[in-house]
Amino acid sequence: MTAHQQRSMLNKVPYVTLYFWVIKILATTVGETGADFLNIKLGLGLNLTSVVMTLALAIALFIQMGSRRYVPWQYWLVVVFLSIVGTLITDTMTDELGISLYISTTGFTLALIATFIFWYRSEGTLSIHDIDTPRRETFYWLAILFTFALGTAGGDLVSEKANLGYLTAGLIFGGLIALITIGYYAKALGPVLAFWLAYILTRPLGASLGDLITQPHSNGGMGMGTMPVSSVFLVVIVSLVAYLSVSRIDSPMNHTSKA
């Protein structure tokens, strides 16, 4: 067994496949619709919803970081809860504290950049194929939390403050992701930079799609409601994660190339 294969056994992050991006976008949409459902439809309120979801995230992170290898359901459970908590952080700053989306978007951008700087200075890499120590995994999850919060703020800024609407915002973010993909395959962008740029943009893409589907017609949405949309998307996520658990096609051990 090679040294890289030994390190891959401990890698806590899935190999990036098409399934990765599909689940990620669905998870971001669930984060948007799920937060709205708990906060508004169930009447928990923003503060109580934030407390409940933060506790759930803490439990999921405890399970994930206590594992010695990548386990699909553990990993994606954390992603879903991070998506919800990231949305709630931005919503709390906007709705409860009255902080401008311009300020929150700038603040989360700076926080994400600072996380990457400290991560790189500490570990010498930002590659997701080397998440094999507790410190690297901590940097990884912190960066992802900021991408969700930033994506929520940026998405709301484009779709609501700029009055472009959810569909237009979704097309803008989808177009940017397409450009990043083209840049990656044209070798104009490195794999690490391309990954993180796409990861950031999938959050506002998913949020825009979630709002487009669930918001009432009066707000420019399709009016399908948060409950049915969240339920369907969760079923799809669970089904895909179950498939990955059985097939192991995204297991780091099955891929020896690095990015």
Automatic annotation (TrEMBL):
Residue ranges crossing the lipid bilayer per the database entry: 12-30, 42-63, 75-93, 99-119, 139-158, 164-186, 193-213, 225-246
Pfam families linked: DUF347
Tagged with keyword ATP-binding: no
InterPro entries attached to this UniProt entry: DUF347
Key words of the record: Membrane, Transmembrane, Transmembrane helix
UniProt entry tagged with the keyword 4Fe-4S: no
Name this protein carries in UniProt: Membrane-anchored protein
Organism (species): Qipengyuania algicida
